[in-house]
Amino acid sequence: MKKVAGKPSDRTLLNEEIFARTVRLIGANGEQVGVVSRDEALQEARRASLDLVMIAAEADPPVVKIMDFGKHLFEVKKNKALQRKKQKQIQVKEMKFRPGTEEGDYQVKLRNLKRFLEDGDKAKVSLRFKGREMVHPEIGLELMTRIGKDLDEMAAIESEPKFEGRQVIMVLAPRRKKAGPKPATAATSVATEA
Questions:
Q1: What single-letter DSSP state applies at residue 14?
Q2: Which is it for strands 63-67 and 22-26: parallel, antiparallel or unpaired?
Q3: If pLDDT is split at 50, 70 and 90, which confidence band does 177 have?
């Protein structure tokens, strides 16, 4: 087998590919066997009908483990797929208002916007003007300002209200949960007062 000069490869070394003369061996059940020669480690792996896998090449001596490498690869692939599945896709949910939206409807729509933001989604607020309502765009801007103030604690305005044709659009993003005050900060403030 040829040894290639340059960067160490990303590939995991198995069985005869391991070149170190002595290795720190970890058994199939995770127990520390100790520092042994590479040949002894290979014999142990063959006796167990498993692979000898290099898990820490930088260590002195390198650390190898007896395991079923195919099963290990399957587990790694399965865990990566599970992590991808758990990732949350941020969606943009839209709530439509009108310049004449009554107070009861306003509260219901505001409650829905809060729910969207609590779920971690962005919220797009659109206010559509019809007919002569375009004569009073300030009514729409006042409504957008009110929505921004009502949701100020849980949302940051990502894009300010702006006109696009006959509608005003504003995008809200959920605020990150703030961690409580750090104990170290409190201790330093007490020390500065004394």
A1: B
A2: parallel
A3: low
Instruction: Give the residue from 110, 117, 112, 114 showing the smallest Cα distance to 143.
Output: 110
Amino acid letter, residue 34: G
DSSP summary character for residue 73: H
Q: How many CB atoms lie within 10 A of CB 147?
A: 24
Count the Cβ atoms, other than its own, within 10 Å of residue 61: 15
pTM above 0.70, yes or no: no
Strands 51-56 and 122-128: unpaired
Residue 188 pLDDT: 46
CA 22, 24, 29, 31 dihedral sign is positive
| Ordered alpha helix ranges (H), the chain | 38-47, 69-86, 103-118, 137-150, 183-193
Q: How many CA atoms lie within 13 A of 193 on its CB side?
A: 6
CA 120 to chain centre: 13
Domains delineated in the chain:
15-68 (3.10.20.80), 92-174 (3.30.110.10)
Q: Which two tokens stand for residue 41?
A: 């480690």
Quick one: DSSP state of residue 128?
A: E
Q: Tell me the sheet residues that pair with 163.
A: 168
Q: How many Å apart are CA 144 and CA 186, to the nearest integer? A: 39
